[in-house]
Amino acid sequence: MIVLLVSFAALLCPTIHSEDASVGEYSTTWPKIAPQYCNRSNQSPINIVTASVQGNPNLTSFNFTGFDDNSTFRDIKNSGESVVVNLDDEKMTVQGGGLPGLYNTVQFHLHWGNGSSSPGSDHTVDGKQYPMELHIVNVHSKYNRNVSAALAAEDSTALAVLGFFIEGTDEVNKPKGWITLTSFLTSIPNSGNTNTGIKNQTTLNSLIEGVDRTKYYRYQGSLTTPSCNEAVIWTVFKEPVKVSHDLINRFSTTVFFKDESASVLNTNSFRGVQPLNGRVVTSQVVQTAASSAAAFTLSVVTVLLMSSLCWL
Ligand SMILES: *[C@@H]1O[C@H](CO)[C@@H](O)[C@H](O)[C@H]1NC(C)=O
Ligand SMILES: *[C@@H]1O[C@H](CO)[C@@H](O)[C@H](O)[C@H]1NC(C)=O
Ligand SMILES: *[C@@H]1O[C@H](CO)[C@@H](O)[C@H](O)[C@H]1NC(C)=O
Ligand SMILES: *[C@@H]1O[C@H](CO)[C@@H](O)[C@H](O)[C@H]1NC(C)=O
Ligand SMILES: *[C@@H]1O[C@H](CO)[C@@H](O)[C@H](O)[C@H]1NC(C)=O
Ligand SMILES: *[C@@H]1O[C@H](CO)[C@@H](O)[C@H](O)[C@H]1NC(C)=O
Ligand SMILES: *[C@@H]1O[C@H](CO)[C@@H](O)[C@H](O)[C@H]1NC(C)=O
Ligand SMILES: [Zn+2]
User: Fold this and answer.
1) Ligand 8 centroid to 272 CA: how many Å?
2) How far, in Å, are 184, 186, 191 from residue 259 at the CA level?
3) Fewer Cβ neighbours under 10 Å: the N or C end of the chain?
4) Which domains does the chain have, with CATH numbers?
């Protein structure tokens, strides 16, 4: 019995995080953030402290429409800040997942560092920064797929952004969708370059394969680039997409911030984490480190109680 309780207690033991909670230094190549909303208090990205994440029963599974449809990519563009793929927002929607209604899926873009062994994600988890992050931008259906109108409304639920961490894998040519995506980078080296050849080649699902989409963090925040509007319901998925190192490396070695002649490669296109200012991050987790520590204490007390009972 005691052995059972002890092993039970061991199972409940909180996982030890070896990562330092600090987030390191950020690049100076990323344009300085200044305009309008960037100095407000609900900014993104943030460092997610897993021990402070609270359980939230509203965070059910999502319904994704059009994510398996290979005719949804409209074009791929070098925006000067990022690589953006514009999507068919009539065919693609997201709902469920605790979101207040139906959202149209407008575009996705990426943030990266300087190759697969360099930090590049916007969000961090317990101080861990991944090499890249994929953002799928969705706008509430009440704005009729007009993002400018949604931002003008000063509505904190106007956009729902889905964030996926990207992690390097030694497996080659993974996932297939990333081979297709990265094959277009050489055709859009300069800011403003667009290629419509990406139509009918791949699906959004093939870029985020392998991730359990029922496990995610939720918090209220902003766009991570100017004008930093505090209009975003953030979803950050816990599991990373595993992408071959060489495919990750293509971003920081192919795409330029402005134009090739200026020869400034787009690297470190992440903002750096912002203060929480009292905001709470929630998740499906019912068991936080704090509650498992409490459970551990309870088990120890039970073990002691049981063993003292043995002496009676
Ligand atoms: C934030 O920045 C804006 C524009 O740069 C400025 O007008 C405003 O005073 C700033 N607010 C605070 C609280 O610093
Ligand atoms: C869950 O949703 C309800 C209804 O929208 C809301 O009142 C409640 O605060 C939400 N709970 C959490 C933990 O966010
Ligand atoms: C892409 O596929 C759609 C739907 O199957 C089709 O209507 C369209 O003509 C195709 N476009 C190209 C450029 O192949
Ligand atoms: C998601 O889809 C399922 C199955 O089609 C449906 O039963 C459910 O009501 C949908 N949920 C939302 C929030 O749309
Ligand atoms: C990125 O990495 C390359 C190769 O390792 C290096 O030459 C370059 O200086 C790095 N760029 C930045 C901005 O750190
Ligand atoms: C989108 O909204 C903006 C701002 O409200 C408006 O000026 C613009 O005409 C709208 N665009 C379309 C295509 O309706
Ligand atoms: C796109 O999807 C259609 C319908 O599911 C399929 O017939 C076609 O082979 C697909 N094309 C590619 C390039 O995967
Ligand atoms: Zn982004």
Assistant:
1) 12
2) 17, 13, 6
3) C
4) 2-285 (3.10.200.10)
